[in-house]
Amino acid sequence: MIQTSGNSMTTLTQDALVEQLSAIVGADKVRTDADSLETFGKDWTKIYPPKPSAIVFPKTTQQVADIVKFANAQNVALVPSGGRTGLSAGAVAANGEVVVAFDYMNQISDFNATDRTVKCGAGVITEQLQTFAEEHDLFYPVDFASAGSSQIGGNISTNAGGIKVIRWGMTRDWVAGMTVVTGEGEILELNKDLMKNNTGYDMRQLFIGGEGTLGFVTEATMRLTRTPKNLTVLVLGIPELDDVMKVLSQFQSTMDLTAFEFFSDKAMQKVLARGDVPAPFETSTDFYALIEFEAVTDADMDQAMVQFEKCMEEGWVVDGVISQSETQAANLWRLREDISETISEWTPYKNDISVVVSKVPPFLRDIDEIVTREYPDFEIIWFGHIGDGNLHLNILKPDDLAKEEFFERCGKVSTWVFEIVEKYQGSVSAEHGVGMTKKPYLEYTRSAAEIAYMRAVKKVFDPNNIMNPGKLIDA
After folding, report:
1. For the domain bounded by 108-226, which CATH number is listed?
2. How far is it, in rounded angstroms, from Cα 167 to Cα 294?
C-alpha cells in the first residue's frame, strides 16, 4: 500500500508508481525487491518495521525536485534516506512511503583552498569528506562512531554532533551554504557560501535539524579548518560522579580541549569483554573520563600533567593513562567509541538527552536513581559527550524478555526520564533528532507556542505534508 500524505487517496498502483518514478530517474534507479525495501526503509532503530512502497535513487537536484512535484501531484508521501544510521526512526518508512535514497549523490567538488570550503552531494559519507580534507592538509571536525556510513545530507538534517563538539561545535557550524528542494519541489540556494550575510532570515537554519520535514538537502558547501596537531588522549579513572565535572573544570581552566567524554565502568566492561581492546589500567573505578587535547609543544604536555596531578591530589582521579603514540590514542578512543556497537546485541533502548554542563551530576543522579529503582532487572549503561552536557542513557533488553514488551516498559521509563529533563530545562534529543521515537515527548523541551510555530513553518514549506510525514511534529 502506498502512503498518501493527506485526506485524499492516490489512485496509483505500485506498477504505475514505479513507471512514473522510472521516467524521472531511469528504471535502474527504482527498486521494489524485498531486500531493498528492507534495507533502505529503515535506520538503526528497531522499533518500527520498514514497509516502503518503493526506493528511488536520484542523481541530481533536478531529479529530486521532479520526484517531489510528482509526489505532490499524486499525493504520495516521501521519506529521505541517507546512511540509515539514525537512532530516532527519522528515516524509517513504516507506512508505505516512497524512500528517496541519496546514495548516488555522492560527489565532492569545487574545493576552494582560500575559503577552506568544499561542495558535497547529500550522499557523501562523513568519512569520505574527512579523508578529502586530510588529503588537502585540512580537517573536517564533526566526527562520531558512524562516520564510516553516515551521509552529509543526513548529518545536516539531524544537525549531527559527536565527539568533538566541545571544541568545534555541531554540523550546523560547518555548513557554509546548501541547496534544498522544498516540499513544493522548489529549488532554493541558501546563503551562497558567505561568511557574513545579514539579509534577513537565514533559512539554512530551518533545514539544518529539520529531519527532511520541510524539504530535502541535496547539496551543501562544507567548511574545513586546519588540521589539529599531535592529538593526545588521557583516560582517567574517577570514583565519584561529581568529580567528573570537577576534572572538566580543572582541565578547562588552562587548556583548550578537543574532546571530553564520559563512560561508566559497566559500559567499559562490555567493550573489554570482547577481548580486542585492553583495559587502560589495573585500577577499577565507577566512572571514566576521556580527555583529548593538542600537545603541540612540551609545555602543552607539561600543563596536562600539572592538571592530572592536581586532580590526583584532590582525590577526583585515582588512576590514569596518557597516549604515547597515535596507535595508543586510537585504542584509548575505542574504549568510548566501541560502546554503541558492542551493546547493540542487547537491543538497547536509547535516550539522547542534554542539560547545561553545570547541571549534569544532579541530573544524571536523578535519572539513574529512578530507573534503577523501578527497573532493577534492566542493565543501565551510561556514556556520552559530558563536556557539552550530552548524555546517552542505554537500557539493555534482558535475554528472556520479548522486544515488544521491553519497548513498552521502556516507554514508561522515557516519561519519567523526560519529566526530569523538563525539570532541569534540558533537551529530550541532544543530537539524534526527534523522528518518531521522540515525537511524543517534544513538549518536554519545546513549549506549546514553539510547537505551533514549527507546524506553521512546516505548512509554509510543505503545504501538502509530502515530506517525511509523521516525523518530528504532526502537521
Report:
1. 3.30.465.10
2. 11
pTM, full prediction: 0.94
Q: Span 347-431+439-455: which CATH code?
A: 3.30.70.2740
CATH architecture, domain defined by 231-340: 2-Layer Sandwich (3.30)
Q: Which residue has the cell 582517567?
A: 236
CA distance 475 to 464: 9
Phi, psi angles (nearest 5°) of residue 129:
-70, -40
The identity of residue 426, as a single letter, is G
Q: What amino acid is encoded at 174 in this protein?
A: W
Task: Round to whole Å and give the CA distance between 354 and 360.
Answer: 8
* 14-103 CATH fold: 3.30.43
Q: Are the beta carbons of 244 and 287 closer than 8 angstroms?
A: yes
Q: Cell digits for 82?
A: 541517507
Identify the burial level of 440 via C-beta atoms within 10 angstroms of its C-beta, where 0-12 means exposed, 13-18 middle and 19 or more buried: middle
376 burial level (CB within 10 Å; 0-12, 13-18, 19+): exposed
- Domain ranges for the chain: 14-103, 108-226, 231-340, 347-431+439-455
Q: pLDDT truncated to tens, each residue of the chain (475 aa)?
A: 677 665 454 678 999 999 999 999 999 999 999 999 999 999 988 889 999 999 999 999 999 999 999 999 999 999 999 999 998 999 999 999 999 999 999 999 999 999 999 999 999 999 999 999 999 999 999 999 899 999 999 999 999 999 999 999 999 999 999 999 999 999 999 999 999 999 999 999 999 999 999 999 999 999 999 999 999 999 999 999 899 999 999 999 999 999 999 999 999 999 999 999 999 999 999 999 999 999 999 999 999 999 999 999 999 999 999 999 999 999 999 999 999 999 989 989 889 999 999 999 999 999 989 888 888 889 999 999 999 999 999 999 999 999 889 988 888 888 999 999 999 999 999 999 999 999 999 999 999 999 999 999 999 999 999 999 999 999 8
Identify whether the C-beta of residue 20 lies closer than 8 Å to the C-beta of residue 10.
no
